[in-house]
């Protein structure tokens, strides 16, 4: 990350040649020289770290118990990145001048929600099978493959841009990295928008056929399944809000006003992702499908053809 310094105390243009920002501390350098222009809140970042750590243990338990391996891997990956990112922000509280914690926080918290959206995409395919794939524009497997590919592309752009921006030696290199990050985040917003539109289209088709019995009517009519749908919607909305915020934040670069204010970050980044992660925990698909997430026995006495389809739609 390039640094634009001005004269301060003993740091003047005469001795900036040998200046190393990593040698700074809060007692020797002004906060304006730090990686972010504020001292990250210890309580706030530790609070988020603790929440994500607790959710990680819950998902480890649920994932193993219900064998929701795809969902499990996505959530665990995202939560581990969130924990790592907020651990780096806690370290930044004690010394906000160090570049390594900033790089870790920047990349981890930027890409972590990509893993959460992957879990949501996996759920859509199961929902389509429950209501009937005749109401969807594409096969359940197609939705999963397409949006997971979008996630991977967004992930690569964000991670690459973050690495380039923070290890840059010139302002132009830094801006190039930021632009790549913005492209990745913007692509994530676009793919989430398209995902929401397809979900809305599917929901409308199901609603128009509400008098027709769903293949898995016993499951789709349950209140907990409706709660599962609302939780997925809330998780999608909060990640969408968060992604829009990060695009706006990076528009001004690392030295921009929004990128150097902690309150908007803690609300529109931290709180939004916490809500999404909690939603995907309290409405864990294992609590809805049981061990049938990847098996063919969602309900007893159901149509055998549907059971087999639910078990093998991802094949």
Architecture overview:
By secondary structure, the protein is mainly α. It has helices at 42-66, 69-94, 99-131, 140-166, 171-208, 217-220, 223-251, 262-282, 285-289, 304-312. The two termini are 45 Å apart. The relative contact order is 0.13. The model is unreliable at 2-16, 296-303 and 311-315 (pLDDT under 50).
Topology:
Elements: H1 42-66, H2 69-94, H3 99-131, H4 140-166, H5 171-208, H6 217-220, H7 223-251, H8 262-282, H9 285-289, H10 304-312
Main attributes?
single chain, 315 residues, mainly alpha, 10 helices, disordered N terminus, disordered C terminus
In short:
With 315 residues, the chain is an all-alpha fold.
| Structural class by SSE content | mainly alpha
Secondary structure: helix percent: 55-70%
Order of helices and strands: HHHHHHHHHH
Largest sheet: none
Shape: elongated
Which spans have pLDDT < 50 for at least 5 consecutive residues?
2-16, 296-303, 311-315
């Amino acid at each position: 990350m390039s640094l634009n310094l001005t004269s301060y105390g003993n740091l003047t243009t005469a001795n900036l040649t040998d200046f190393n920002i990593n040698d700074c501390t809060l007692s020797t350098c002004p906060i304006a020289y730090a990686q972010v222009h504020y001292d990250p809140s210890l309580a706030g970042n530790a609070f988020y770290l603790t929440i994500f750590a607790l959710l990680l243990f819950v998902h480890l338990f649920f994932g193993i118990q219900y064998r929701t391996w795809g969902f499990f891997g996505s959530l665990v990956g995202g939560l581990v990145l969130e924990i790592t990112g907020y651990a780096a922000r806690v370290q930044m509280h004690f010394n906000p001048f160090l570049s390594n914690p900033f790089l870790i926080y920047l990349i981890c918290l930027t890409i972590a929600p990509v893993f959460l959206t992957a879990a949501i995409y996996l759920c859509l395919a199961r929902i389509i099978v429950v209501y009937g794939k005749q109401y969807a524009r594409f096969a359940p497997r197609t939705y999963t493959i397409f949006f997971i590919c979008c996630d991977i592309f967004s992930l690569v752009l964000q991670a690459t841009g973050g690495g380039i921006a923070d290890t840059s030696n010139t302002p132009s290199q830094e801006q190039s990295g930021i632009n790549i990050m913005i492209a990745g985040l913007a692509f994530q917003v676009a793919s989430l928008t398209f995902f929401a539109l397809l979900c809305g289209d599917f929901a409308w088709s199901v609603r128009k056929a509400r008098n027709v019995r769903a293949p898995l009517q016993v499951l789709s009519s349950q209140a907990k399944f409706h709660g599962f749908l609302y939780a997925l919607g809330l998780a999608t909305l909060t990640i969408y809000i968060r992604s829009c915020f990060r695009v706006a934040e990076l528009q001004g670069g690392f030295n921009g006003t929004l990128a150097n204010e902690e309150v908007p970050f803690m609300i529109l980044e931290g709180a939004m992702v916490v809500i999404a992660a909690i939603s995907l925990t309290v409405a864990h698909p294992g609590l809805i499908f049981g061990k049938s997430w990847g098996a063919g026995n969602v309900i007893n006495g159901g149509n055998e053809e549907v059971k087999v389809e639910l078990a093998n739609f991802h094949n």
